[in-house]
Amino acid sequence: xGNDGAPIWSIERNANSTSxxxxxxxxxxxxFGRVFTDHMATIRYAEGRGWHDAKIGPxxxxxxxxxxxxxxxxxxxxxxxxxYRLPDGGAALFRPEANARRFQHSARRLAMAPLPEALFLESxxxxxxxxxxxxxxxxxxxxxxxxxxxxxxxxxxxxxxxEYLYGVIAAPVGAYFKGSSPAVTxxxxxxYTRAAPGGTGDAKCGGNYAASLAAxxxxxxxxxxxxxxLDAVERRWVEELGGMNVFFVFDDGSLQTPxxxxxxxxxxxxxxxxxxxxxxxLEVREAPYSIDDWQADAASxxxxxxFACGTAAVxxxxxxxxxxxxxxxxxxxxxxxxxARLKAALLDIQQGRAPDAHxxxxxxF
Length: 365
Ligand code: PLP
Ligand code: COI
Hints:
By secondary structure, the protein is α+β, with helices and mostly antiparallel strands.
C-alpha cells in the first residue's frame, strides 16, 4: 500500500513475450479482438480490505472455482477504449477519464465496488506503456483496451459479491467491419428488445450483450451486419445498435441522435461527435426518432445519411435498413458527406493529425 492507501503497482515482464518478427506479422492485419498483447493489468478487491495487489504481469488464464458468483449471476462489467499511435512515434489515449467514470457508473448499477478513477487510469496507462510496441500505426488502427471486472466470491447465494477481480487486456485492432462495402446494412429487431426503463441499458455489462446475441444472430441470418433495437415500451423509437450509437443527418444539414433516456449506452464517441458537429456550426438534436419516420424520411429524401458510432466501429455509414415491416435505402446506400467529414475530424484528433482543441488526448509517451 502507498501512504494514501492506494495499492502500488508491481510490474512483472512476460519472460515468453512474442518475438519482434512475430509481432510485426500479427500487427499487419489484425482481425478485431483475435490478437492480444503479452501483458495484462489486474487489481483485486475484498470487502474490508479494499483494492489491493495491483499488478502488470504476463497475460494468462484465470483460474475460477466453479461456484464463483460471476459464472452464475453475471455480475460483470467492462469498458472499451483505444490507445493511438501518434505521428511522432508517441501514443495517447482518447478521453480515458470518461471511460473511468462510465465504469464506476456501471459498477454501481451492478452493485459492484466502484474502482477509483485514478486506479482505472493508472492500470490502462501502465499496461499501454509496457505493451507499447503493440500499438499499430496504420490509418484506423489502434490498440484496443478492454478493462473488465468480475464478481469472484465463491458462493451460490444471490447477493452482491464481497470480492472482485478487475483486469485490463489489450488487442491491436483495425476496422471493426471488415467487408468491402462502404456502408453497413442493419436489421430492425421487432422480436427482441435490448433494454427496458429501469434496467441495465445505460451500464456496460456483459448481460446486455448476451441478451443482444439472439437478435444479432437473426440479423446475420437476414444478411445484415448489425441489429438496431427499438424501445421496449412502444416498440417504436430507435434506440441504438448492439454495440454502437446511431445518428441521423437531414437535408437541412442538421443531425439527430436518440436521447440518453437511461436505456442506451452513453457513448463517448457519441458525445465527442455532438461536440465536433456543433463546432462545425451544425445543429444537433438529442431527440427520439421513430422507425416509421426513419423509413418515410429516407423515402422522401428528408433524411440524407445515417451512421453508427462507437470506439470499435468509429463512424460507420448505414446504407440499408431491413426488418419484417421495413426495407429502405438511405441516400445512395453509400457513405454520406457529413458522415465522412465527422469521421475524418474525429480520427484526425485521435491519430494526432489535428489540434486537440478539447483536451481529449491523454499523452502516454
Ligand atoms: N452502445 C453500445 C451498446 C456499445 O457497446 C458501445 C460501445 O462501447 C457504444 C454504444 C458506443 O460507446 P463508445 O463510443 O463509448 O465506445
Ligand atoms: C466498443 O466499441 O468498445 C464496444 O465495446 C462495442 C463492441 C461491439 C466491441
